């Protein structure tokens, strides 16, 4: 298992990677799922043999409050139905930490519960915020969990220009679930999970 990284260069590299994803031309994406709350696209990942997913939808709230619900902290566990536990293992500065979290089984438990250890970083982006993360090979894997791996992931949240109390939330997710799984099951789960993320988040912000 690796030791903890130097946070500053990792944060810079992570931000630059997410900004590059954010600039990928529309024509490179294929629609994977569409709901009233969000559209999910995908394209082959450059990092591993699965997909990079892009999700986008308008959320009725201000940027800071939305990002506070997404990034590591007290809100996330309350509303994210997929997340079953979360511990902050290390805090480097206010906007930078290492967290360990677990996720519930999915697809009638075809996908067993997973554990992740992620470096998380939140920074300003244009008029809004970017909160992003990447998994680390750090710490012992707990029994009854498969250790998954998040390649560079993140959420851009910017206020709508003509309606600043609404925000455009765009996520980029590429999760390697690991373990013996049919790829089709993973692809189905990812698209649904991302669409549900928006509907769950909207409910949480209204409550």
TrEMBL record:
Q: What Gene Ontology terms describe what this protein does at the molecular function level?
A: cholesterol binding; cholesterol transfer activity
Which SMART domains does this chain map to?
START
Instruction: Write down the species.
Output: Pachyramphus minor
Q: What is this protein called?
A: STAR4 protein
START domain: residues covered = 29-207
Q: Which PANTHER family does the record match to this protein?
A: STAR-RELATED LIPID TRANSFER PROTEIN 4
Q: Which GO terms describe its cellular component?
A: cytosol; endoplasmic reticulum
Q: Name one GO biological process term.
A: cholesterol transport involved in cholesterol storage
Gene designation: Stard4
């Amino acid at each position: 298992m690796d030791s903890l990284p130097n946070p500053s260069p990792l944060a810079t590299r992570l931000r630059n990677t997410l900004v590059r994803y954010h600039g990928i031309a529309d024509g490179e994406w294929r629609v994977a799922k569409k709901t009233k709350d969000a559209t999910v696209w995908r394209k082959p990942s450059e990092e591993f043999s699965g997909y990079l997913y892009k999700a986008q939808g308008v959320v009725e709230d201000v940027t800071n409050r939305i990002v506070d619900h997404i990034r590591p902290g007290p809100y996330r566990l309350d509303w994210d139905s997929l997340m079953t536990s979360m511990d902050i293992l290390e805090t480097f500065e206010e906007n930078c930490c290492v967290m360990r979290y677990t996720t519930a089984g999915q697809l009638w438990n075809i996908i067993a519960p997973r554990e992740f250890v992620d470096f998380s970083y939140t920074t300003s982006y244009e008029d809004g915020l970017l909160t992003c993360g990447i998994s680390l090979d750090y710490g012992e894997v707990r029994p009854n969990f498969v250790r998954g791996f998040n390649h560079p992931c993140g959420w851009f949240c910017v206020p709508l220009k003509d309606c600043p109390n609404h925000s455009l939330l765009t996520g980029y997710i590429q999760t390697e679930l690991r373990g013996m799984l049919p790829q089709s099951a993973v692809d189905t789960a990812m698209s649904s999970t991302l669409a549900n993320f928006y509907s769950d988040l909207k409910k949480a912000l209204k409550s």
